[in-house]
Amino acid sequence: MADVLPDHYHHRSMFTGLVESLGKVVSVVAEPPGVRLVVEAEPIVTGTALGASICVSGCCLSVVRIEGPRMEFQLGPETLTRTSLGRLKTGGRVNLERSLMLSDRLGGHLVTGHVDGMGGLVSRFREGEWETCRFSAPSPLLAQMASKGSVTIDGVSLTVVDVAADSFSVALIPQTLSATTLGQLATGDGVNLETDVVFKYVARWLEARG
Question: Which CATH number applies to 117-209: 2.40.30.20, 2.60.40.730, 3.40.50.720, 3.40.50.620?
Fold first, then answer.
């Protein structure tokens, strides 16, 4: 059993939005003012060190304890309020990705693991083995999306199909449907959204000029 990491431990990491493993929520234990999240993720625990950054369904969290095939994370009030992690229950699933190394190929796009806001599944339409899903999103986030641009949904890097006044759509291939939590979403379920970091810089530049 690894030692517990100090609460103040923190560092920046980047991800690609390519989910490595589906983790199983073992328990969500109250730890006022937050909670301790215990996830079973045997495929990626090996080689993961105490303090490592893991993208958990789109949210960057530090590993505070490792025991066998399980990793533990501490979630504060802001994370519980502003992301879908506050709704996790025992037996649920989460998308997991370890932080990017400089020697890795960038298969998805640059993802920070900092959730910009929450959206919700509006509809899903199946065509053959593919599914087109439409998600609601806050207006400021929709303004940072464009057709053929990138968006991260629950930690999964995806290409935007189209953007409407109050929603956007993405197309999910069979691999994404089977290897991530997106395949199990029901209409009305909330998701964590992160827009492309390039759009953020462009938006900030335009704001500064204006």
Answer: 2.40.30.20
CA 9 to chain centre: 21
* pLDDT tens digits, 46-85: 889 999 999 999 999 999 999 999 999 999 999 999 999 9
- pLDDT at 82 (0 to 100): 95
Instruction: Give domain limits for the chain.
Output: 21-98, 117-209
Checking if the pLDDT of 24 tops 70, the result is yes
Burial of residue 6, with CB atoms counted within 10 A of its CB: 0-12 exposed, 13-18 middle, 19 or more buried: exposed
Q: What is the pTM of this model?
A: 0.90
**Gap between the Cα atoms of 85 and 114, Å rounded:** 13
Give CATH for domain 21-98. Answer: 2.40.30.20
Do 165 and 157 contact (CB within 8 A), yes or no? Answer: no
